[in-house]
Amino acid sequence: MSWKEHLRPAVFDLSLYSPFDYATAPRELVRLDANEAAYPLEADELAAFQRELGKVAFHRYPEVSARPLREALARRWGVRPEQLLLGNGSDEIISILLTAFGGGRDGRAARVLYPAPTFGEYEAIALAHGAVPLPVPLDARFQLDEAALLEAIRRERPALAFYASPNNPTGNRFDAGAMERLARAMEGVAVVDEAYGDFGGATQLGRVGEVPGLFVMRTLSKIGLAALRLGALVGPADAIAELHKVRLPYNVNSVSIALACAALDEPAALDARIRRVAERRRELEAGLRALPALTVFPSDSNFVLVRVADAPAVFRALLARGVLVRNLSRPGPLHDCLRITAGTSEENEACLRALRAVLA
Ligand SMILES: Cc1ncc(COP(=O)(O)O)c(C=O)c1O
Asked: Where are the N6-(pyridoxal phosphate)lysine residues found in this chain (predicted)?
């Protein structure tokens, strides 16, 4: 007997989440690979953080359900604090959802539905919990195939569905009416993942409570606060109360609570950063469209998906010129695709310059 016989079989098949190791790069890179916000915090935001850090009771556990931060986020999003669950990034929220809803019924493993290609953690976290991932291909324009999703819902009765809108890595948002109809067709929970919702205009937040089983997930990672690791789930208060039972106590730490509250206290700086990032994405998208060798997919997010002949070679050539993007190329709908996060104007220009040189 060894410990290996006790490991869930699915765990052996998982691969380690391994983003680019910046420490091994031979030179400073223009980092357009991780969909972060291009701009660091402003001096007055950092000064507020310093003040808040001085008030943190480091010898005490955090407020157990991060209530001050739930209140601040509830105000920003026009919901009630009881409708909010926070996590150590939205990755942890996905895991909490699987813990609560992934138990399976009638001896059958829980099904987790999502349109594909999409954010890889839905599949990875489902597998880690012993659930069965149920990817349904997006159509040729990377929009929802509503008929195929409805058919999968009827056939498989998924416990959970995830719709990333705007979607990563395709960049576009999905039709709101379709997501609502799909949520209504579910017995289980439909999560609209609005990680990039701040850049894409439309939100489903107003539909929570109106559409049974509809939840909205958000994150502070894309708007300048990735280091704090804060994600949020908005849902019906009775369901959120059940989820609070399965999240680990103190899952959000005191430093993140205090600093996020400080950032939300000065929404003007936060909103200005969001507008600047959205503007830089529009600039990047326009610059990419001027390169005839690229197919550019329309984006509502803070990144742009492009297709180019021999994407792996272009990825390597860009890296050699100090520009890091994400190489997503694999057989299927993402063949020869690269994902490029919007940078500052200078970073976007460096990327476009490198692309022009590589494609010449
Ligand atoms: C669609 C989507 N959802 C969730 C996340 C995870 O965000 P967090 O940093 O809050 O864990 C990402 C991160 O890239 C994402 O693209």
From this structure: 222
